[in-house]
């Protein structure tokens, strides 16, 4: 669930260019899709927890959720509700604003020229 799939026309064009760089077509650097919010948030949650030297079970217990669910959040597999985000921020001694601001920094970490533009489909 949640795999990124580029639509065929861009993918086919990029594949043709990379397979035939000597035929007058410039070799393109493969584009990466922009990171998803849940992935950026997951990286930030894991970073905050590891910075504090805590285990998943410790933070999950204080936030009132299962360690398995926190693990899925940290891996970017799940989107937390606003209530869950508040509980997690509190368990990490952060405000929701601080947590989301820090996670938002991950979204801008991919240079615009390396991001895929155009339509992207999330495959379920």
Account of the 3D structure:
- With 124 residues, the protein is mainly alpha-helical.
- Helix content is 52%, strand content 6%.
Instruction: Tell me how many strands there are.
Output: 2
Global geometry: globular
State which percent range the strand residues make up: 5-15%
Described by strand count, sense and barrel closure, the largest sheet is: 2 strands, antiparallel
Span of the ends, CA to CA = 4 Å
SSE blueprint:
Layout: E1 3-6, H1 8-19, H2 37-51, H3 56-63, H4 67-74, H5 82-91, H6 96-107, E2 120-123
Antiparallel strand pairs: 1-2
Helix pairs in contact: 2-6, 3-4, 3-5
Provide key terms for this protein.
about 120 residues, 2 strands, mainly alpha, globular, two-stranded antiparallel ribbon
């Amino acid at each position: 669930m949640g795999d990124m799939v580029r639509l065929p026309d861009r993918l086919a064009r990029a594949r043709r260019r990379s397979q035939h760089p000597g035929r007058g077509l410039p070799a393109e650097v493969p584009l990466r899709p922009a990171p998803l919010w849940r992935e950026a948030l997951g990286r930030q949650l894991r970073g905050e927890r590891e910075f504090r030297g805590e285990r998943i079970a410790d933070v999950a217990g204080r936030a009132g959720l299962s360690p398995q669910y926190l693990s899925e959040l940290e891996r970017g597999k799940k989107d937390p509700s606003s209530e869950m985000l508040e509980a997690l921020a509190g368990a990490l001694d952060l405000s929701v604003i601080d947590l989301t601001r820090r996670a938002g920094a991950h979204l801008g970490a991919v240079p615009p020229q390396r991001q895929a533009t155009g339509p992207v489909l999330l495959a379920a």
